[in-house]
Model the fold of this input.
Amino acid sequence: MMKTALVLTVAGLATAASADLITASAFGPHAVTAPTYGEAAGDVTNTVNAIFDAGGGIILNSLAHTVDSSEAMTAGFRPTTMTTTVTTVGSTRTITMEWLTDGGAFMVEPGDSATGAGPVTTLSFEHGSANAAGNGIDDPDFVAYNHPFDGTSYLGAFDLLGAGGAVLFSGSYFLQLPSATEMDGRTFISAGGGDLSGFGITGGRSTWSYEIVPAPASAALLGLGGFAAARRRR
Done:
């Protein structure tokens, strides 16, 4: 049963919405002590979806995912499908990543635990991060993120999903640049240390956009536009 009167806290900002404290954080537990960045192979990125219990245990769903496709993750806890889409409009490119359980199953069920030392208290959605052993999305056309910077990460959008794709919570997906054109991201979902099994979570969706080097035809059009504007000013 869904709780009511949630207080949402994202990057230090709180908004009253409906009964437990849910947060989206850039920082959370790690199974790997150091990421191995610089391994991105074009359109392939390491993705994970992980549960962490109160005893510090972790179980991962993982996948070396081909961007702009839909693929089954290696299931550590719930069978899950990873889907990404890439759209480009002008000089802006947008990537959407979705982690969805198969058949709409709940991602966290009552009694779930990695160590048996307590319930699942944190849920993560990540790509190219430490838990994913690095290997972010590499786009040689990348110029700059179209998102605010909080001093640590660029803030993309994240939706926590429930039955039928309903949005249970909206927060931030925390993005970084381990190299000039490689993008990684993650968000850690928690509810004040409480059991996450009561929220009916079926997945998560991150979305972010960035500026790219214009295609030659687009660049030529931009140049012609500037030339025309200059002529009008004469």
